[in-house]
Each structure stands twice: as C-alpha cells, then as structure tokens.
Design a protein that fits this description.
Layout (H helix, E strand, L loop, with lengths): L5 H8 L15 H16 L1 H17 L8 H9 L4 H11 L5 H39 L6 H21 L4 H7 L3 H8 L4
Length: 191
C-alpha cells in the first residue's frame, strides 16, 4: 500500500500530477524527516500489509488513473475499515502526526514538492522531447489532419500536467530538497 508501485512511478515520471491546493502550514525539516521515518517503519511492516495491498491494487486497476495529487491521503481513505488502519495510525502517531489523515495530507504535499523538484531538473529535456514529438506529428504523412490535431491536444494536455505538477509551493520545495535521496530510498524510487 505505501510502497509506490511501478505503475504509480511510471505515471509520476510521465508528469500526470494534478496541482495541490496551497496549504497554510509550512512544511518543516522535522516534518519531512518524520514522514520519511514513518515510511521506513511502514516498509518494515510490508508483509502485514500484503493482503490489503492486493485488495487496493485490484481497486487501483479498476480505476482509470490514480489521483497522484492525493496518493497518500487517498491510500489512507482506502484503508479505513481495514484492520491495518489502526496499525497505520499507531505508526504515524509515533512519528508526531495527529492522525493518518494528517499524515496523508502531509505526504501528498511532500510528494508534490518532490515531483516538482524532479521535474524541474528534467524540464529542458522534456521541452526538447515535446518539441520533437510535435514536429514528428506535424510531419507524419500517414496521419490525417484530424489525427494530428488530436495528437497535438494530447501533447498539450501532457505539457499542461507537467507544468501543473511543477507548481508546488516554493517553501515546500525548499523543505523537501535536502531529503530527495532519502525519499527515493524510502519509496523504492532510487534511480
């Protein structure tokens, strides 16, 4: 449940994040550290979460596209009613969070800021790839004008999603920046 599935990571790297609302509470270094520590503790409980993970994976497959802007808070919502919710609550409270819901909201913000930082590092490459793809579409003799227009709209949507995902609050990005390697390690997203 907490480990980011390869499909989720693929979607993440395809820039399919939605913007998050701005939060009044500032992310602190300690909050980010506590969140990472909670993820590490939850990873040690992975075997206990296996049945729930399988149930939730089946639900995810039925959904068209997970809402990446709420990856943690939606996972918490899905856990309600399962025995593992109480275990999650115990772990997150040990790390200073008032509830699984607060932990999920903080996790969403951290993930959004992390994503924005990762995308910021790749923005030049993404822009080049998008321009190249648009040129290929425009020069493809095997596509009708209607097909080309549809592809342009899809590319525009992907670029818009990329720009929205990169729009995390600057303060959140600054809080997360020093912890990117630890986040990669804690989520299995090491490059």
């Amino acid at each position: 449940m907490i480990r980011l599935h390869p499909v989720v990571l693929a979607v993440f790297y395809l820039f399919a994040l939605s913007p998050l609302s701005v939060h009044a509470e500032t992310l602190t270094d300690q909050t980010v550290r506590s969140f990472i520590s909670s993820l590490e503790d939850l990873q040690t409980m992975e075997d206990e979460f296996e049945d729930l993970t399988e149930d939730l994976s089946a639900e995810e497959e039925a959904a068209e596209m997970p809402d990446m802007s709420r990856i943690f808070s939606s996972s918490v919502e899905q856990m309600k009613g399962h025995d593992m919710y109480n275990q999650l609550e115990d772990v997150v409270q040990q790390h200073g969070f008032s509830s699984p819901e607060q932990w999920g909201q903080i996790g969403d913000r951290i993930f959004h800021a992390w994503s924005a930082l990762e995308m910021g590092q790749q923005s030049g490459q993404v822009n080049q790839e998008m321009a190249r793809a648009m040129e290929e579409i425009d020069n493809n003799p095997n596509m009708s004008e209607a097909q080309k227009q549809q592809m342009r709209e899809m590319m525009g949507g992907a670029m818009s999603a990329f720009e929205q995902a990169a729009s995390a609050p600057e303060a959140d990005k600054q809080a997360v920046q020093p912890h990117m390697e630890a986040l990669r390690a804690a989520t299995g997203a090491e490059q």
